[in-house]
Amino acid sequence: MSLSFQVGKTSGNARAGRLLTPHGDIETPVFMPVGTLASVKGIPQDTLEELGAQVILGNTYHLYLRPGIETIRKMGGLHDFMAWPRAMLTDSGGFQVFSLNELRKVTEEGVTFRSHLDGSTHFFSPESAIEAQIGLGADIIMAFDECTEYPADRERVRASMELTLRWGKRCKQYFEEHKQEVPWRTSPRPSALSPRQEQIRGSARNHSEEEASQSFFGIVQGGMDRALRKESAARTIEIGFSGYAIGGLSVGEPRNLTREIVESTLEHLPADKPRYLMGVGTPEQIAEYARLGVDMMDCVLPTRAARHGLLFTSEGKISIKQARYAHDQGPLDPSCACRVCRRYSRAYLRHLYASNEVLAQVLNTIHNLSFYLDTMRRVRHSI
Ligand SMILES: [Zn+2]
Predict the structure, then answer these.
(1) At CA 18, angle to CA 15 and CA 23, rounded to 5?
(2) How many whole angstroms separate alpha carbon 33 and alpha carbon 58?
(3) From ligand 1's centre to the CA of 290, what distance in Å?
(4) Residues designated as active site
(5) Of 49, 152, 210, 270, which is most buried by a Cβ count within 10 Å?
């Protein structure tokens, strides 16, 4: 497959690498901000570029409901639609659908679910989840899997893992038959691009036909069972993907168990392919997982916490709404060089938050994302 991944330096289990995508290279280990609805909430795309975000996530389930896959496909794909020139990754919608709980029904064929927006009924299958992700056109797309709930008994974990493996094969087959349909390869012809589109697509067009296609990652499940994780890894590798994700973690299990499963699963993943740990964690955790040998991570924590006034700093977590900051003229984090810490005081940030100003969400998110991206940059440089 098309994705090229080069591991440069290693240090213990940690690796510093480079992932080449049609929309630019990604230095790993990398943290990927989450842009659920084609937007990292509150942050303009040029600011994300300035912060050094190399790749961002889109959520297929949310984009499928609003504005709809067909709308985005007709706009030339997610990059064109949201004017993001760098790399993107979409999830398969599986995790979101599974978090709907009461609103879903799983069969061999796929998942029937009800929209959290209006209660309307929809159906995702492995095939339709890949079709949607080809329509969105992210550089990296994910297999449609079942995220096993926690706790679950061994029989249930095995049955769920087997379903994910069968779905993985169906996803792969659909992808192989339809991968040429990605919107930035098909329409419009390069000569018909507007200057705006030209800027967004520029990097994608510099690649050869073979290189300029999406990369497809498989997902390892197996609950909290080390033997099943090993088996899931081996059989997912057998299906053959250009990268491997560790799914089904951060579902309510204790943190030391997350770490144990991550560590034991990593042992069974190929060294020459990117490894993606989905949906974790705090700044300390992402640094820890990178040191264990994870290459890619995403989490809503920095953006979601920011909107609730919870800020990660080199001195620990701060709740900016507290009265103790009302007259604090110091920067949010004296060790952070982000544009928020360079310019504003804690007193001002506290005032914005207490007054429910939109700017509070923007500035808080900029700082938290900077803090995460800087944390990962430091880990990269330490390898
Ligand atoms: Zn800052």
Answers:
(1) 150
(2) 9
(3) 22
(4) 91, 298
(5) 152
